[in-house]
Amino acid sequence: MGDEKMRSIKGIKALLIDLNGTVHVGNDPTPRAAEAIAKLRRAHIPFLFCSNNTKESTKDAVQRLADMGISAETEEVMTSLGACRQLVDDQKLRPYLLLSPSAKEEFAHLPVVRPDEHDSVILGQHPPSLSYEALNKAFRILKGEPIAHDQNPNRPDRKPLLIAPHTSSFLQAPATSDLPAGLSLGLGPFVKALESATGLEATIVGKPTRRFFEMAIERLNELYPGEREAGEYAVVGDDIVNDLGAGTTELGLRRILVRTGKYRPGAEAGERPPDSIFDKFADLVDAIV
Fold first, then answer.
1. pTM of the predicted structure, to 2 decimals
2. SS3 content of the chain, % helix, strand, coil (to 5)
3. Residue 107: pLDDT above 60?
């Protein structure tokens, strides 16, 4: 390893690790990922998994890791869906959920409300939930238009919220019966469509927002107490924009890109190149430990 790359990772004391595309792609771990996580544990290096995956609940994300031979506790996985849930709870919202059945488990504690009592919309990466009919209902909720024939005339007059875990334009998708593995349309274009139609600006709660990383660092410090400076935390991901974007630079965190998942050659070029690049997550761990 070159001296410059070694300098770029020197002093790292904790990791905020992306999941899909970095530790695994779909149901397949990236090369030696399970070994790398075990190595971090043996070396007592603090880490937290940070995921923008909106297809599944935290519980199912932990199970997916277990199926790949990677052990993790629920509190070691912070998701953008969890950040959505916290916003809903803090503001006592009654959201209309465009989410997968697994992702909806994060909101199972919410009371059942009439269709016309929704005061917010949450979108997730689940194509069957993003049909024209579902998106049009979301549009009507956000515009204050009727969505029930027996609309409640006394429903609360509250400015509706459009909430999205992230705005990724595309993702690395596994092979299906129709298509080989490759980049596929992400959640971002659907969020932009509703923003355009309603004139509202979506509230983004996942990576790469500053608030998400502040919450992640707070969680990690609860799990691994200790004194650490901002530059001693490193964020690891395969997406230069949505894993290593604005919030990381605002907080002064180290940014490490891996050439797996949705990474494509040239992705690191731009105004804010990463601090370091590794072929895969396991190579980074080998360099740190």
1. 0.87
2. 40, 20, 45
3. yes
